[in-house]
Write a structure and sequence with these properties.
The complex is a heterodimer. Chain A is of the alpha/beta class. Chain A is 32% helix and 27% strand. Chain A folds into two domains: 220 residues, Rossmann fold, CATH 3.40.50; 67 residues, Alpha-Beta Plaits (2-Layer Sandwich). Chain A is built from ten helices and 14 strands. In chain A, strand 7, helix 6 and strand 8 form a beta-alpha-beta unit. Chain A is elongated and about 80 Å long. Chain A starts with a strand and ends in a 5-residue tail after the last helix. Chain B has one domain. By secondary structure, chain B is an all-alpha fold. Chain B is built from ten helices and no strands. Classes of the chains: A alpha/beta, B mainly alpha. The interface between A and B is medium-sized, with 35 and 28 residues. The structure holds adenosine-5'-triphosphate and magnesium ion. The site of magnesium ion has 4 residues of chain A, from helix 1. Magnesium ion binds next to helix 1 of chain A.
């Protein structure tokens, strides 16, 4: 089946001459959750804006549900819900009206029961008659989400939905995303919280300086790039490492009690057995063994720092 | 056509109007009443009838035109400038709405508001002077066309403006003089010949003249010229709006 969002060789140069997206190609499958990671100014918002029709592409094409966003904009846009990064709301309008307004804008006829449901889901129902200016920041972000959901989109873009949101609300939001996925909604979110991407995404894309560095299944990414560490706790502290162990990538802790061995996760030969035999041959008694998988954060930091060195 | 979308914009804009209904109505009614007191009663008592119409009645069409014109520009300008200013415009731009539909929503709402105010002023004037409207259908037609075309102009200004100052500058510097020099409070035949010629280049003259004709059956310029002028003006504004959306002028990056 064709991808629901198809981005082909998309380049975006702003009027000032700055190129914020460089030849980006990306397919997003129906029903998946894609997390876009990247440092500030990487081009995440620009990518979303161009797909949603707020910003015009300089070259390349974008299709949503098979409809070109420029030539067949009406069909393409009807499928999309967008929660922008910045909170922008009409300050004097009441919550219920702004949400109904969004549904109408997208051509849907009024459906009070559905709007109430959305407001309930986002714990906004009690605030439905409050002016948006009277709400807290977290609530306003939820109003934005309610507005985006009001027209029952098939593809939902969440540009940093959890920035500045407390832990509880973040959990709520993850649950909501999970439920939407259950309903078959495709979700694209950007985030700076790597654990968030790790927790909810199926695939992860990394953008840096307008280039899409990679898009991969989360599990594959972790496997391919993940480093594992084996920590060996010694019975008797040692001052220096015996020569025999020099061939291993080992670091000795300051107190001489722990050896850390780094290896790549998912490789055929990790060298662990050999290392342990070598330790035994040296007569070093072990108290404990621990392994730790490097997190997505480590992978991410490695990626974005690549080529940025002095 | 995305009718639900057009209605959504129209309603949202009308809600803004009704939130401040008191200011929206009190200020035009008050200023109109002042015009009647100052021009109609104080000065008008010293001015003889203009072509058989008392001066107080003579200024009614001009006053309505003046207010409808200013209100249309102001409402439509603010209506599109404000979402641009606070950033909520992204939603309208990302919605499945064509430029025409967006304009219909915003300009339609602005024109509705100014028409309502125009009717209120007409109602107010009945308290001050005796008027009979000779061609009511034409009167309404001119009023609607004026409200729509100047709401279009306001919409253009709202997209163009980068600040509230700019938004207010054009109505102040261009539109107000044109209105005052457009024969709202006098017949151009009262002017010296040179200024009569200059006035012929003022588009507002054609509107006021046509509108006054609908009231009293007398006009400074032929009625066909008035109609042609307003149709031309509306067409020109539509062309500019069409260009703005096509190029994304000051709307999209
Ligand atoms: N309207 C604009 N005109 C000119 N340059 C822009 C415009 N919008 C964004 N840029 C530039 O494009 C680059 C990408 O910006 P973008 O907002 O897409 O980044 P981002 O990845 O969303 O960053 P963040 O994590 O801070 O939200 C930045 O260098 C930014 O300065
Ligand atoms: Mg961003």
């Amino acid at each position: 089946m064709a991808a629901i969002v198809q981005v082909e060789n998309l380049t975006k140069t702003y009027d000032g001459g700055f190129t914020a997206l460089k030849d980006v190609s990306l397919d997003i499958q129906e029903g998946e959750i894609l997390a876009l990671l990247g440092p500030n100014g990487a081009g995440k918002t620009t990518l979303i804006s161009t797909i949603c029709g707020i910003s015009n592409p300089t070259s390349g094409r974008v299709r949503v549900g098979g409809h070109d966003v420029i030539e067949d904009w009406r069909a393409a846009r009807s499928l999309i819900g967008l929660v922008p990064q910045e909170i922008r709301l009409e300050p004097f309008e009441i919550v219920g009206n702004t949400v109904r307004f969004s549904r109408g804008l997208f051509g849907k006829s009024a459906n009070p029961a559905f709007i109430d449901e959305v407001l309930h889901d986002l714990s906004l129902y009690d605030k439905r008659n409050a002016r948006t200016a009277e709400l807290s920041g977290g609530m306003r972000r939820r109003v934005l989400i309610a507005k985006a959901l009001a027209h029952e989109p098939r593809v939902l873009f969440l540009d940093e939905p959890t920035a500045g949101v407390d832990v509880e609300l973040r959990r709520d939001m993850w649950r909501l995303i999970e439920r939407l996925r259950g309903e078959g909604v495709t979700i694209i979110l950007t985030t700076h919280y790597i654990e968030e991407a790790e927790m909810i995404a199926d695939r992860i894309g990394v953008i840096r300086s307008g280039e899409l560095l990679l898009v991969e299944e989360k599990a594959d990414l972790m496997r391919r790039l993940g480093r594992k560490e084996l920590t060996v706790e010694l019975h008797h502290p040692v001052e220096t490492l015996p020569d025999r162990l020099a061939e291993y990538d080992l670091t000795l802790s300051g107190d001489g009690r722990r050896l850390v061995y780094g290896y790549k996760a998912g490789e055929e030969r990790t060298g662990i057995t050999r290392l342990l035999s070598a330790l035994q041959a040296e007569g070093m008694a072990l108290i404990d063994l621990q392994t730790r998988e490097s997190s997505l954060e480590d992978i991410f930091v490695d990626l974005v720092q690549e080529g940025e060195g002095p | 056509m995305n009718w639900n979308g057009i209605v959504a914009i129209w309603r949202f804009e009308m809600a803004r109007f009704f939130r401040s209904i008191v200011q929206s109505i009190v200020s035009p009614v008050l200023s109109t009443s002042l015009y009647f007191v100052v021009f109609g009663a104080a000065i008008g008592s010293r001015i003889e009838e203009v072509e058989g119409v008392s001066y107080g009645a003579f200024i009614v069409p001009g006053l309505i035109m003046l207010t409808v014109l200013q209100q249309s520009i102001q409402n439509a300008g603010f209506g599109i400038y404000f979402p641009k200013f606070i950033g909520t415009i992204f939603e309208v731009l990302s919605a499945p709405l064509s430029a025409f539909e967006i304009v219909l929503g915003y300009v339609g709402a602005a024109a509705t508001k100014s028409l309502m105010i125009g009717c209120i002023i007409l109602g107010t004037s009945f308290f001050f002077v005796d008027i009979t409207i000779q061609h009511p259908v034409w009167m309404i037609g001119f009023l609607v066309l004026t409200a729509v075309s100047f709401a279009l102009l306001g919409f253009i200004l709202g997209i163009w403006a980068r600040s509230f100052e700019q938004l207010n500058l054009v109505p102040l510097l261009v539109v107000t003089p044109l209105v005052f020099l457009g024969g709202s409070f006098y017949s151009v035949t009262m002017l010296p010949p040179f200024w009569q010629t200059v006035s012929m280049f003022n588009p507002v003259l054609y509107l006021v003249s046509g509108f006054r004709w609908a009231f009293f059956g007398m006009a400074d310029v032929p009625i066909a010229a008035s109609l042609a002028a307003i149709v031309f003006f509306t067409g020109a504004c539509l062309a500019v709006v069409w260009w703005m959306f096509r190029t994304g002028y000051r709307l999209k990056s």
